[in-house]
Structure formats: structure tokens, C-alpha cells
Queue: 2 jobs
Job 1
Amino acid sequence: MNAQKVIALALLGLLLGAFIVGATLVIRARWLTGGTEGEYARFIERGRILAEVQGNFKSAIAAFDSAIEVNSQRAQAYYLRGRAHSQLGDYKEALADCGEAIRLAPKDPEAYEMRALVYERKGDLENAIGDYDAAIRIARWPTLYYFRGSAHGKKGDLDKAIADYTEAIRIDSTYAAAYLRRAIIHQDKGELDAAIADYSTAIQIDRNYATAYRLRALVYEKKGELDKVLSDYTQAIRIDPNDPKVYRLRGIAYQRYGENVKADNDFAYAKHLEMSRQAPK
């Protein structure tokens, strides 16, 4: 073998050795980080679609399991899996997953928010509010104030609930749901004009907010403004013509007006809608 062949073989050996070392490092890095970002993202997206769009929480949990197998050091898959567990009533697993998410990402407000939602679903309002507090210390998102306001409302702390909804509105003045929730609290406190003002603002933001029309009608009813009651129920029906309870409510309003034929028609149609929902498909 001449010198040139020896040199060529030596170079080939060096190149092959470098390739093997490089491949080993890539494999080791992938093992240490738990996989590629693309794989992780695909499993997360699949899990979210299964849970949030299809309501298939068991399959969503399997998708999040796969994401965790790809990368066990990312918090998102844990708290999303925790939320899916909570939807199935498995609060022990849900809290464990959210706790692991917080351990991995103690500065991630979503991890605290998810655990708060689990506590709230479980009925543990004190711990839910504590986690909302922690999330708000990290990020002053309007949704966090909205959810904490809901927890305060469930506890009966109506003034704190109003304060949180007000802060959510201050941050995002187009937050129609926050106006609606604040209106409900005003209504519960007997502050009818304030309730009407908030329902009206929610409707100005979202002209197709059927719930706001329906609830505002109830306040007008308490104030004895029957023309506005009928108008709001009719608007709610226009937006959602398949809600039987609104037909029943409008039927009751027609009865108070003495328009019994219209009342009977609404009651009959409400019954028809209810029977249609119960019929086997």
C-alpha cells in the first residue's frame, strides 16, 4: 500500500469517527432534552384539539402523555393534562400534574391558573384564590382577575368579586363577559340600575350576546318595565332560537300582559324544543 492510500484511509477513518461522534452527541442531546420541539408541539396541539374542541379528555390525556415522553421538562403538557384530568373528575391526578408544572416553571402564570381552575372545580375556593393571587403577581392578565372574581363570587365575597371584574374591565374595556359577570353581582346585590348599565355595555360590545339580553330582561322585569322585558327576550330568541327557557320566560311575560295566546304559543314551542333535545338521535 503506497503512502497516498494510507493517508486517504486515515482521513476516511477520521471523518467516519467524527460522524459517529457527532451522531452520538445529537442522539444524546435529544435524549437529554426529551425529543424535538416539533414532536412536542404536535402532541400538544393534538391534545388541545381533543380536549377543547372534541371534548375527548381521555384521548387528550394520552396525547399529553406522549408530549411528556418526548420532553418531561416542559410544564405545559403537565398543566394541560391536569386540566383534562379535572374534566373527568380526577382531581388527585389533576392537582399532581399542575403541581409538577409549577415545580418546573414557577414563573409561569398559566400553571397557577390551571391549578386554580382545578381547585375551583373541586370546590376548594380558598386554594383557588391563592393560586389566582400567585398568577396575578406574575402577570396582570384580565382573565386572571375575571376568574378570581368568579371564585370570590362563589364564596359570597361580592365586593371583592366586583373589584376583580372592574380591574379586568380596566385592563380590557372590551371584555364583555366581565361586564356580564359584574352585572350579575350588581343584580344579586339589588343594584338594578348598575346591573342594567353593565348588561347594556356587554350588549354594545357584542350585539349577539343572547345571555346579556336574557338577564337584562330579568332586571327590567323587577323594575316593572314589561315592554323592555319582551323586547330583550325577543332579541335573545332572535340570536338563539333554540333555547327553550327563553321562550318560557317570554311566555310568562306575555301572561302578565294578558296576551295568553302568545304566551301559550311560547310555552308550546319551548316544550317542542325540550322534547326534540330528549328524542333519540
Note: DSSP finds 15 helices and no strands in the chain.
Job 2
Amino acid sequence: MLRILFYIWLSWFIFSRLSRAVSSSSSQTTPPPRPPRPPNPMGRDPQTAGDSLPNGFADLVAMLAKQAKCDGAVTQGEIGNVDAFFTHTLNLSAAARAEAIQIFQRAKDSHISFEFHARRYHAIHAMNRPMLAAVLQLLVILSLADGEMSAEEEMLINQAQAIFGVQSEEYAQYRARQRQRTRTAGEKGEKYYAKVLGLRGEMTRDEVKKAYRKLVREYHPDRVAHLGESVRKTAEEEMKKINEAYDFFQRKYAL
């Protein structure tokens, strides 16, 4: 009987020691290193600052900055939306938020293009379509912060959709509202939209795309900004007509 009790006590003693050893070992285990990230053209990646920021965070912030600045100025509404995203959606610490603001300020005036950041962000999150859709939603919300979406903002959203391979439901709803507004103001037919794009008679998909790209290059804000504010505003109005015309032919030819 004593021998049985001894073995029971010995088993309990060994088990308790092993449990403590395993617990101590797991608490002291060094976490595995993070996978390497692509180089950041804006400078130091905020993820190296010690905060657990999402992968590709610098490119996301840069896209927001480019979107906010593309029509000439960053509005208070746009600043408020971006800050709410940092503070409430991502729950960034004070240090991480300060880092994000610095990236935003540098990116909005940088020569590095929106397309560059969008492609690099997609390379990181290509398999996460819900996340890409969420980024598109954020871009649309940012663009509508002042109640209207400029032609330049629409261009970048369309560019992001093409790069991500994802369509924004929010942008589709916006375009539907715009089409309804156009119908209310008076029907515009194919001849009208063809004239906007500089096309006549029968046309192919490739001709529509070629004409649209040519006009986008001509009316891009960078090409007319040096001519003054009035010329820039005129170009923006023309871009709205061009985007409306292209939207018409997109639906007709499923471009």
C-alpha cells in the first residue's frame, strides 16, 4: 500500500514539475521574426517602429493621401475621415497615429504615383479580396467627404479597381445615382456621348478605350495646373463629362 501511495506521489511531483517547465518555457519563447516587407519609398516603414500595424500600412496611407490631394487641395472633411480611420477603425496608439500622419503629409506631396502604391499594396494582399474591397470603400468615402466626387478622384478609384481586380459596390452605387441624375435632367443618347469622346459613326471597344485614354491625358490636372485655377476647374468639368461618356460605353460594350 505504501509503495502504491509513493508512486502516486512521485507521479504527481513529476507532472507538476513538467507543467511548470512547459509554462515557463512558453512564456519566454521569442516570437518568430516578421516576414520581410517590400522597401518603403516614403522612408522608414511604420511597422519597424514597434507598433503592430497592418502589413502594407505605409502604402495604404499613401493611397489615401494621393486620393485626398488629387483634386488640388485636402479638405477638412477628408482630414477628418482619414483621422477617424486611424483612430477608430485601426485603433492606433498615439505614437503610431503620429507616424501615420507623417507618412500622409509626405505622400500627398511626393512624386511617387498612386498607381505605384496601389500595385504594391495589391502585391501584399492579392489573396484578401475583402480587404481590397474595404480599401476601395474607404477611397470612395474619402472622395465624397465634401459631397461631390471630382473627375480626378474618379480616375484614381477606377485605377484602383483595375489593379485590385475588385469592383467597389459603393462606387457603383454612386455612379447609379449620377446616371439617375442625368436621366432626370434629360436623356443623353449615344451620339452625345460619342461626341464627348470625339468619336463618330460606328465604333469598336478599342476605339472607345483609346479615345478615353487620350482625353484623360489631355485633361489631367498636372497638365493644366500651371495655367491657373479657372483653367483647372474647366478641365475638371470636362473630365466629368468624359467619365460620364466612358461610363455609358462601359455599360453598352461591357468594357
Note: The first helix runs from residue 2 to 28.
